[in-house]
Amino acid sequence: MTMPHQDQSALFVMDGVKGGHDGMSYSNPKKFRKKKQEVLDIEKLANDVRAGDRTALSKAITLIESSNTEHKEQAQKLLQELLPYTGNAIRIGITGVPGAGKSSFIEAFGTMLCKIGKRVAVLAIDPSSSLSGGSILGDKTRMEELVRQENAFVRPSPSAGTLGGVHKKSRETMLLCEAAGYDVLLIETVGVGQSETYVRGMVDFFLLLVLTGAGDELQGMKKGIMELADGIIVHKADGDNLRPARRTMQEYKQILHFLQPSTPGWLSTALSVSSMEKVGLDKVWDMLMEFEQTVKKTNYWNIRRREQTRDWFHSMITDQLIDSFYGNPERKQQVRKFEDEILHGRLTVTQGVNALFD
Amino acid sequence: MTMPHQDQSALFVMDGVKGGHDGMSYSNPKKFRKKKQEVLDIEKLANDVRAGDRTALSKAITLIESSNTEHKEQAQKLLQELLPYTGNAIRIGITGVPGAGKSSFIEAFGTMLCKIGKRVAVLAIDPSSSLSGGSILGDKTRMEELVRQENAFVRPSPSAGTLGGVHKKSRETMLLCEAAGYDVLLIETVGVGQSETYVRGMVDFFLLLVLTGAGDELQGMKKGIMELADGIIVHKADGDNLRPARRTMQEYKQILHFLQPSTPGWLSTALSVSSMEKVGLDKVWDMLMEFEQTVKKTNYWNIRRREQTRDWFHSMITDQLIDSFYGNPERKQQVRKFEDEILHGRLTVTQGVNALFD
To answer: Hydrolase as a keyword (chains A, B) (predicted)?
Structure first.
């Protein structure tokens, strides 16, 4: 139901894709114009992302990461537009202790992939963040060669306030990169306990970078990380370090043999690589291709992805439940009060919980 | 405010510790009598438990495990009475794959402890449950010697419907055993993935039983269990198996050296034991005593227990939130609907969650 009106906003409304606007007044024409433009922007942004425009992709990721309510709505609209074009990349998680050379590996490996025609998107840890353990030389010297590649897209994330550089929006960022046509996704994370399990839950292949000296390396490792890995790379296998690196690789192969495989049907293995001399990078790609072939054959590839999506959904439900529960300041205070009573032995845990929910 | 009344129930009410019964009618005297008796019972039960009466302790555990609403209230009342007398035992979790000989170890170790004057309570897996991996000879031949000891209390739990024989009430059962004066608690669990992490979260010391052949053994092991262990026992170190068991023990010691300790300040170690020949059991007790001394010195003993109680409280809150969310059948149907939409790529995960909570 449109009414004749002199104001331009009315024309916008009449042009609108969705004509129904019952119950709305024309008293705020500016709001209407704004709304209309934003709808167009999201569509354009979606198209630009799909066309492989890197600036558009950056903008889209920023929108996804925004905590502004209006942005959140737009982000979901954008993501829904792009959903049909997602899922076609191989998703690779890369972890390792600080100093293992994650960024130099990604730089060398990504550049090699670009040169053989792959389109590579990297979710990297921002080295300017003090906790990341990244290069102290700053962002500019990081992945210098890779960012110059036409087929590469590097998105740095601050590790502060996140789980080892990975956060709740990383999964959605991955989907955006896939819609933009990237076929290899490298997700960097620094080992901070839970981040590896989290990243394992969103990738197809989980790669662990280590240095020579299996003992020392294992010593510093968080629990169970090795068992999450589909592949281990003994890094910096160059110069005097070449022989020890080969030996370490053998040691890891032996240990991996004892552990349960991270991916059913795939025997996790170890390789030695020099990113500086660019030796062994092709073997890493061969391993990934063999992995993809093996795991797609059993259909576990799709099964895992469905499971990951389902788990994501249910863990977001749980997060939401916990957030709204603890988000209430009065409730929070009550929790603290009961916690105190329990820790002082005046109340059983069950009594505390029952009292909270009464 | 008591009123003269001919019915006997009135006398009960007048005798009641808590006299106030405003708003209640005398139309159901039987209910009143029942209430009164139960109040007395809980107090008596608490006293009997504290006096070390094993029948009372059994009854108390059954009450704790009951899902009847009235029983639940009584159970919490009982537990609160007993709370001041808890916390004085060493809590030991015992795990291992089926066939590792958990029950024969507990039988031999527990009996030895009783003979040196310790009071030992065992939360054991009921072998009549098919999933337990326990003896097929049935309950009677299990821990036969131990149950005859005056200082022992053995409580079997069905493993069906529980996490490897351990369930949500096991923590409260432990508290009851402590109130009853038991100073060593042995909590048996069979490895079913998450049960070990769960048990690790409720004990001071986590003991892993393995057999010879570290490779095979590790192969069958769930992820990360080894890293949870404070000690590993290579079991059945007797006869022809003695030498291989010693070798395996050395292998485990080496592997443990590579892993992060489960308890800060304590270097997890391996021992070889024969429960049949009763060899090495004293070494296990020495290890436990050394552990207690070491960990109490740094105060981590208390810190961990407080953390465990706090975690227990918050995980019960989360459970309660999830239960009430999914417990609603309408909600459950909605979740399934949105899950379907998401898995078919028609909705983003965030949209699905937002729609659910709107």
So the answer is: yes
